[in-house]
Amino acid sequence: MARGKKKEILTPEERLQAALVPESEQPYEVPANWCWVRLGSLLSEIKNGTTIKQDKSGIGYKVTRIESLQNQTIDFNRLGTIVNEQEIKDTDWYLVGDIALSHINSAEHVGKTALIGVDMLPLVHGMNLLRLRFYNKCCMPILFQYFSQSFQYKNEILSRINMAVNQVSINQKQLRSLEFPLPPFLEQQRIVDRIESLFAKLDEAKQKAQDALDSFEARKSAILHKAFTGELTTQWRKEHGVGMESWEKTILKKVCEVNPKKIDTKGLPDDLEVSFFPMTSLSEIYGEITEPQTRLLKDVKTGFTNFSEGDVVFAKITPCMENGKSAIIGKLVNEIGYGTTEFYVLRCRENLYNRYLYHMIRDLTFRHQAKSVMAGAVGQQRVPKQFMENYPLDLPSVSEQTEIVRILDDLLAKEQQAKEAAEKVLEQIDLIKKAILARAFRGELGTNDPSEESAVELLRQVLSTSDR
Question: Which of 80, 130, 64 is CA-nearest to residue 101?
C-alpha cells in the first residue's frame, strides 16, 4: 500500500519566517514594532459549517446561513433552524469571538464578516460561511473585523477570488495567505478603543441624517396633503377675497381626458422621426423625462400609446405606480410622442392645470386609493381606467391651482435638497470611517507606543506553543 507524503516538520523559526510577509510583498509600511503576517498564522481554525439538514420553521437551535450575515453582524431574522438537533456535533457551535466570513457570494459581498458575541449564542455554524477562530492573546477578533471593513482588506479579497457565473468565492488557502498588519497586543486594544470612540460620534451624526432621510416621504406627503385641502393657499384666498366655497367638487374625467384618442398620422411618412418614452425614462424624483429617445413612425404606430406636449403620464402598473412614476411631456420631435401602454395619458382641459394634476397623482392619498383597487396578476397589477375617470377631487380655480403649484414646487425642491444633503452626509460618514480604518491599520491614530515589544515576538510565542 502506498503511503501518503510525510508532512514536513518546521522548526519554530521556520514557522515564523513562513508566517511573516516578505518586505517586497508588504502592501505598505507600518510602525517598527508591528509586523505584516499571513492571516492563517493567527488562526487556530478556519472551517466551513455543518451540512446538517435545516429549515426555516424557527423551532430548534438557530443556524447561520449565507444570507444571515448582514451589516457586519448576524441578522437573526435570516437564520435557519436545525431539523435534527441530535446530529449537531460539539465542533459545530460558534464560540464568543469567532468570525463568520462570507466566502461564496457576489463580488460586492464576498469577504464580509460578523463577530460572534455572547448575546448570539447558542448558535450553530452553517455551511457557506467560513468560521475563523484566532489564537488567544494573539490577535483580537474585533480588530480583524474592523480590518475586514477597510479598503485594503477588500482589495486583497478581490485579488484572490475565483470567478463563477453568478457568484465568486475565496477558498481557505487563499484566505490564509491574506496579508494582515499585526500590532503589539496592548496596541490592538488601544486601536479598538480609538476606533470605537470615533465611530460612536460618527454614528450619532449618521443617525440624525438617516432620521431626516427616513422622514422625507412623510414630510412630502404632509406638504401635498396641505396643498389639496387648501391649507397652503389660505393666505392667498384672503388676499384675493375668496373662500373654500370657490373649490368645485368634480371627478377627473370632467376636467381631463384619460387616454385620449391617438392623433391622426395618415399621410405622414413612415420614416418620420418621433419622440419615444420608455418606462425607464421617467425620473421618480423630479417627474422629468431623463432619457427620451427617437424612433421612426412606422415602428410605433401599433402597440404604443400616443402623447402630446403637455400631457401628464402616469405609470399604472406595480411597482412603478407605487413609486409615483409620472411626468409631464415636454417638447416633442415633430410634435408627436409615443410610449408604453403601461402609461395612462392624462390630457387636461382648460380648467385643470397640468402641473397641479401632476402633483395630485403623486400624492400618497391618490396612490393609496389607486393601489387598493388594482387588479390583475401579482406583480403586474394595474390601476383600472374607471378609477381614474371617476376619481373625486375638490378643484380650485386655475389661478389658485397655479399658486398651489408655485408653493409646492418651492417647498418640494427644498425638501429634495435636504434629502440629497442627508444622503451626501451618509456617504461622507462611510468614507470618513474608511479613512479612519486606513489610518488605524497604518499606526497613524496616535496610539502606538514604540517602546512596546514587537509584534514579531508575540507571533513567535504563539507559533512556538501552537500545535501545527
Answer: 130
Task: Note whether 351 and 255 are within 8 A (CB).
Answer: yes
For residues 272-285, one letter each, b for 16 or more C-beta atoms within 10 angstroms of the residue's C-beta and e for the rest, the string is eebbbbeeebbeee
DSSP 304: S
Neighbouring CB atoms inside 10 A of 218's CB total: 10
CB under 8 Å to 269, separation ≥6 — which residues?
297
Residues 6+ apart with CB under 8 A from 427: none
Report d(CA 256, CA 403) in Å as an integer.
Answer: 20
Residue 405 to residue 247: CA distance in whole angstroms: 16
- pLDDT band with cut points at 50, 70 and 90 for residue 324: low
d(C-alpha 326, C-alpha 346), whole Å? 10
Identify the bridge partners of residue 105 per DSSP, sorted by sequence position: 168
Which letter does DSSP use for residue 124 in this model?
A: B
**Other CB atoms within 10 Å distance of the CB of residue 331:** 10
Residue 403 to residue 268: CA distance in whole angstroms:
40
Report the half-sphere exposure of 267 (CA within 13 A, side-chain side).
2
d(CA 133, CA 139): 10
pLDDT: which is higher, 193 or 290 = 193
Q: Which tens digit of pLDDT belongs to each residue from 71-107?
A: 999 999 999 999 999 999 999 999 999 999 999 999 9
Q: In this structure, are residues 92 and 125 in contact, taking their beta carbons and an 8 Å threshold?
A: yes
**CA–CA dist 128, 51 (Å, integer):** 9
- Helix and strand numbers (H, E) in the chain are 13, 24
The pLDDT, as a whole number, for residue 1 is 47
Is the model's pLDDT at 291 over the cut of 80?
no
Dihedral in degrees, nearest 10, Cα atoms 379, 381, 383, 385: 150
The residue that leads in pLDDT, 81 or 282, is 81
- The residue whose grid cell reads 370632467 is 254
Q: Are 384 and 357 in contact (CB under 8 A)?
A: no
Q: Which residues contact 460 (CB under 8 A, 6 or more apart)?
A: 12, 16
